[in-house]
Write the structure tokens for this entry.
Amino acid sequence: MERIEGLAKLTGRERYVDDLQVDGALWGMTVRSRAPRGRIREIRFDPAVDWSEIVVVDHRDIPGANEVLLIEPDQPVLAAERVRHVHEPVLLLAHPSREVVRRAAHAIEIEVDPEPPYLDVSVPPRPDQLQRGEDNVFKRLRIEKGDVDTALARAARVVEGEYRTGAQEHVYIETQGMLAWEENGVVFIKGSLQCPYYVHKAAIRALGREPDGVRIVQAATGGGFGGKEEYPSMIALHAALLTLAADRPVKIVYDRGEDMEATTKRHPAIVRHRTGVDADGRLVAQDIDVVMDGGAYVTLSPVVLSRGIIHASGPYRCENVRIHGRVMLTNSPPHGAFRGFGAPQTHFANERHMDVVAAAAGLDPIELRRRNLLLDGDETATGQRIVDGVDRIALLDQAVDLSGWREKEAAHAELARTDPWLRRGMGLACFHHGAGFTGSGEVMLASRLDVAGLPDGRVEVRSANIEMGQGTLTIFTAIAAARLGLAPSEVAIAEADTGRVPNSGPTVASRTAMIVGRLVEEACDDLRLRLGLPADARGEEIRQAVREHARATGEETVGRAEYEPPRGVLWDDATYRGDAYAAYGWGAYVAEVEVDLRTWATRVVDFVAVQDVGTVLHRTLAAGQVQGGVAQGIGWALMEECRWKDGAMQNAQLTNYIVPTSFDLPPIRVHFGETPWPGGPMGAKGLGELPIDGPAPAVVNAVARAIGVAPTEIPLTPERLMDLDRRAEGRHARIA
Amino acid sequence: MKVERPRALAAALGLLGDAAAPLVPLAGGTDLLVHWPVRPDARTRGYLDLQRLDELRGIRWSEDALELGALATYWDVITDSRVGAEFPILVEAARQVGAIQIQSRGTWAGNVANGSPAADGVPVLMAFGAVIVLESRQGRREVPLDAYYSGYREGARREAELIVAIRIPRRAHALQRFVKVGPRRAQAIAKVGLAVARSEEGWRVVAASVAPTVRRCRAVERRLEERGLPGSPEELDDALRADVAPIDDLRSTADYRARVLARVLFDATRKGGA
């Protein structure tokens, strides 16, 4: 099946928010703090600018609460007395000319009496850096299973390690943007976003309105990766405040620099492992400590931490597990949702550590993993019994075989003997990713979705889940068409407009295909029922009934679905015990790298990605998701680095924040195991995030084997690798 | 903002000579326009657009020199098979500048005038002993490229002058090497750049991104002339220390630049260079 919006994107017909021409619209611009922390003393407006022609908004113009409401209400829409991070929004400006408003923003000085910022979570905050409780901790979480201390004391071997991962920028192609206007007393906000109802919730709070006083509409969205999960609420509120003040439509579109400096990044993390193995290399204890840098406000940090610690012990069987996690307030811009949502950080640590454990135990990395991978019937760290029919050892064996590991290792040894500079190595990672919201999250979301019969016999899927390049429109169309026996052209997907579609939840957490796709099926079934048709009615029967019903009643028939958890899925949020996710995707990735010892540059030369995500709904889209995730993971592993100074990103340009080009990527060979999962549509599980979990550890493990170093930190830039290599002195340096 | 678009070189030089209204020459615009949205001052200056000056276009061959007109682009060089045959590293360097869009607009003269220490085009030109031809209303003068730069982004061109051509002497080369070490394999700014040429005139070694300007490495050249090929990268360290002064910045570290330069130089001199 063709991608629904593919041709429009390919030909440039698709209209993103920056393309929407609105008569009389003003350009909005944000004036931001330059200090990481302090009290606002004075705001100076350059008298050379004619301020009478510029709309200026500050915190006093907010009709409702000065809060960007999400999990906690701590983040202001506009800073009032204090700022907590560089680039924190303080004022908003609007003018018909983008050029004028840009210059005006430069003509405002925000004077801040500085206070000491807290910027490094590897050292505890000093008393004068405290800004939350006794310790600047936003959230602590723990998972306990068995008796870790006794098991460590009895273990044949205990292996320790500390691993660090850096912030990562989303680099969606389309930067953040919003358009706001008022129509018959309703504030409309349209823009680039993943979660219409998150924006809606934040907007009614800050604008002080009833739910029907605000309507959020998604515009075509050029990539998200989580970066458009929470930040769009901020920019939407800014555009709305300006439109209310100006009484004109207002558009805000960030340029790349502002987007990179001011919006969220992946949480940097430090993960410590203490692992006990028995004489056969079986895991007997995993003691894991996770610290994340949350940035200046809570945003989504508690749930990022939650997903991070739940995945921290990997897809392995171990009777004694202790995982402590905390996410800290710092004075950098808030870190936020990014594909993988905490799991890539902990998976990197765990899979890198598994190679260190293997070396200590005298096992090869494949064998160590084979001995410890979860078998059906085993329990995870939270005590979830995994019984999904997936053979995780077979996935690993398949990845290893497809990669040609054994033959290549021999060739690599030969290369190291004959080439003065080039070294190659193989690296492996086994991992998993829970699909859908964590724990009881999906139950609390209580997602709803409609499928309506239209008067012309077609059906319309009404959901709040959006297309951002990942294939929602195509997948929903395919699911509804298959369920009702209609052609794809007979299925329409409604615009994600909170005035028209029910709240089917956010487009995040690998939940769209699996959770919401299942709701599409159920709403189709409900539609059939409401049409008075038998459960096996398909195609022409549906078409006719829809048309007749519309003719007879003058109304459309609407099939409805509401989320219900699969039977037997239980989670206890107080003890962090139980079924953390209804289903998991499983992966085994193998990377082959080449390190050039002239430059210490690493090139990934081959990549095999084997995963089981249940039934694959659309082969091309699914392979694209995997290849994109691998590319993003390789970037995070080797080159993508946010350079911070005093809480501000120094390299907020694509010339200096380096993402991989096609020349930097290997062939990415994608293979799917397809063990159907009965809870998902047509047997599918979530896929979107899984592919970002495996590449970084696989690549770094390969580098470690190629040149005999033990990296613990990413990105593993050539500069870092040079330092490691020099410390591991004398291991290479055969010069022809 | 003012943009002048003369059709003849004489008119262009006339406009440039007006000290009351200084103009920035604009050829491909690939350096100037990158920063357009974030540098408001770029919009208050005056520009001299050279695109209509057909006499500055293209590549000319003579008995003893290859001459690149001021509007000669990287693409002009990439697509000229004679350049590929005689000056292969000129083509190699051109292919490593940005992507095809930049290669088809960006000019060699612009690369010289812009004066970035990380330039990709300048090192190969300097290794071939190129001469910069400057012209003003007062006449022409020529400055060897290795004497052109006096400091960070400071070149010999005066405000009233235009670079009208780059002349590259045609010499028989026993060895030509170009190495660009970037943070990725394409579309990147050099962390270390190197051009090496060996002709009857001797060794020419030029390094980029390791000093305030693209730098001819005379101590290294002497070292190679006097003592022959090095036995290890470290044997080049003393000479390199005299020639270059790398720094820590957003893109790399001084330590990395120094070590990598020594290694790629060591490797470049040895490959077919004995």
Observations:
- Chain A has three domains: 6-115+171-262, 343-437+583-727, 447-562.
- The two ends of chain A are 55 Å apart (CA to CA).
